[in-house]
Amino acid sequence: MNTQTIPPLAPDAPVVLEMTNISKSFGAVTALVDVSIRLRQGEVLALVGDNGAGKSTLIKILSGFHQPDTGTIVSQGKEVRFASPRDARAQGIETVYQDLALIGDLSVFHNMFLGREYRKRVLGLNLLDNGKMREQAQLYLDTLGISIPSVNSTVDLLSGGQRQCIAVARSIYSSPKILVLDEPLAALGVRESAHVLGLIQNLRQQRWVSVILIVHNYNQIFEVCDRINFLHSGEIALDASTADTSEEELIRIVKSGLGRKGDRCRRGASAAGLRMSRRQGTARTIPAGSTPSTGPRMEHSL
Ligand SMILES: Nc1ncnc2c1ncn2[C@@H]1O[C@H](COP(=O)(O)OP(=O)(O)OP(=O)(O)O)[C@@H](O)[C@H]1O
């Protein structure tokens, strides 16, 4: 992984997202109670919590799949309401779900440009411009520090971690403001997780996109996140920068059922699934001089 020390986020980094007092119930099931989160430009925020804590519900509200019962969302300084995922995308919020939505028997470069292919006219025919897509895909993956055998490989031949990186790369090709990653490390082994963590670390170093990283286990996040929001039973039990908290504190909160934001977090949380080991990554860093200041603006952008 990119092991360079990344300077802390500037204290005056603008707020790009504020979700305030969000509540959501599904019939008799209360999924979220007055949840507020705030995300700043370039920040990597981990949203952690046990099964059923409400993580997916919160990001589905942010992604436009669900509407909150109460609460407000302010994106880029203005209040927004997302009636659909399309609305959220139009506001620059991209979400990568666990299914990744890649087509396994297509090449990496075809997947990168799915639905937005380069085309060229040859003898009056409208053909795919495979050469250009290949070249652009390679350039883009290099910029993000993603290493794969070849952009010509079919996605099925890649490791789980590499596939996850391609899905993330495809999502950020459209230069979103906010990237939501839904459990990107789920079901990945140590080496595969390292690819993904390396990519997140590279994004964090560049600071042009803000990232919400949903994780069930929090053993890897201290290396790649600026801040942690810990959800428990539908409420935020802790909101702290990674520098100001520790794995030990999270474990203590889970065991005691108490959050720093008061005694709202109910007792009896299970520590199951909260593993303590940290994993090391190996993904490449972005070469000096190739770091874009406002994000990788490619020739073709949605
Ligand atoms: N569509 C739905 N209908 C009914 N209940 C739901 C629905 N979606 C979520 N829930 C309930 O809301 C609560 C929060 O679920 P959510 O999926 O947001 O938690 P989570 O933190 O993402 O959990 P996990 O890590 O297991 O995915 C749970 O009790 C869940 O059963």
Helix/strand-derived category reads alpha/beta
Number of strand elements: 12
Helix content: 10-25%
Radius of gyration: 20 Å
Q: What is the terminal separation in angstroms?
A: 29 Å
The shape is globular
Characterization of this structure:
By secondary structure, the chain is of the alpha/beta class. It has helices at residues 55-62, 85-90, 108-112, 130-144, 160-172, 190-206, 247-256; strands at 15-26, 29-40, 44-48, 70-75, 78-80, 93-96, 119-122, 125-128, 178-182, 210-215, 227-232, 235-241. The protein is built from seven helices and twelve strands. It has a six-stranded mixed β-sheet, sandwiched between helices. Strands 2-1-4-5 form a four-stranded antiparallel β-sheet, covered by helices on one side. The protein is globular. Adenosine-5'-triphosphate (ATP) is lined by residues 26, 29, 31, 49, 51-57, 216.
Descriptive key words:
ABC_transporter-like_ATP-bd; binds adenosine-5'-triphosphate; globular; ATP-binding cassette domain-containing protein; 7 helices; ATP binding; alpha/beta; 12 strands; ABC_transporter-like_CS; six-stranded mixed β-sheet
Brief account:
The chain contains 7 helices and 12 strands. By secondary structure, it is of the alpha/beta class.
Topology at a glance:
Layout: E1 15-26, E2 29-40, E3 44-48, H1 55-62, E4 70-75, E5 78-80, H2 85-90, E6 93-96, H3 108-112, E7 119-122, E8 125-128, H4 130-144, H5 160-172, E9 178-182, H6 190-206, E10 210-215, E11 227-232, E12 235-241, H7 247-256
Parallel strand pairs: 3-10, 3-11, 6-9, 9-10
Antiparallel strand pairs: 1-2, 1-4, 4-5, 7-8, 11-12
InterPro entries: AAA+_ATPase (IPR003593), ABC_carbohydrate_import_ATPase (IPR050107), ABC_transporter-like_ATP-bd (IPR003439), ABC_transporter-like_CS (IPR017871), P-loop_NTPase (IPR027417)
Domain ABC transporter: 17-258
Family: Belongs to the ABC transporter superfamily.
